[in-house]
Amino acid sequence: MTERKTYFSIAERYLSSAQNELANANPYLEVVAFKFYHSYECLASSLTLFFNRKVPKSHPKKLNTFLALAKKEPRPLNIHNVAYLNMLFENQRNKYLYPEIESTGNIKAPQNQIDQTKINNIRTQVEGIHRNLRPII
After folding, report:
1. Interval 53-110: pLDDT, tens
2. Residues 6 or more apart whose Cβ sits within 8 Å of residue 15
3. How far is the C-alpha of 123 from the C-alpha of 131, rounded, in Å?
4. DSSP string of the chain?
5. By C-alpha distance, which of 79, 73, 45 is closest to 59?
6. Whose CB has fewer CB within 10 Å in the chain, the N or C terminal residue?
7. Contact (Cβ atoms closer than 8 angstroms) between residue 7 and residue 28
């Protein structure tokens, strides 16, 4: 399997796992959100490799490269969704993993960073990007 297809396979596995957890009413939405993020990041890596580019190591660079290359992809990728998810995940990724110390000194746990409405929105957008990339990867 090529590196591009390997990344795409990882994206599909994490997407499927996140979908299954939601179908089984997993109360750990921050875990599901991180799985959607990881699926999205692997989709970004697979498109980067499709364009014969090296996959950046840093998370922000991966996502920014994805946005730049998605604009060049002739098949319909919703650039607004890509830009939105990049912004959301850059801001939220670590919050799904680690406690956040607020300016007031309060600790906000990862499970308090996301709700059902947000996870449904993320799911819809990641699934759409997956659907659009599937034919070319």
Report:
1. 999 999 999 999 999 999 887 677 888 899 999 999 999 999 999 999 999 999 999 9
2. 35, 36, 39, 126, 127, 130
3. 12
4. --HHHHHHHHHHHHHHHHHHHHHTT-S-HHHHHHHHHHHHHHHHHHHHHHTT-PPPSSHHHHHHHHHHHHTT-SS---HHHHHHHHHHHHHHGGGGTS-EE-TTS-EE-GGGS--HHHHHHHHHHHHHHHHHHTTT-
5. 45
6. N
7. no
pLDDT tens track for 5-22: 999 999 999 999 999 999
Please tell me whether the overall predicted TM-score, pTM, comes out greater than 0.90 for this model. yes
Q: In whole angstroms, give the CA distance from residue 129 to residue 133.
A: 6
Give Rg (Cα) of the chain.
15
pLDDT of residue 77: 83
> To 10 degrees, what angle do helices 116-133 and 29-50 make?
20
Q: Residue 132 and residue 38: Cα distance in Å, rounded? A: 17
User: What is the Cα–Cα distance from 99 to 111, expressed in whole angstroms?
Assistant: 9
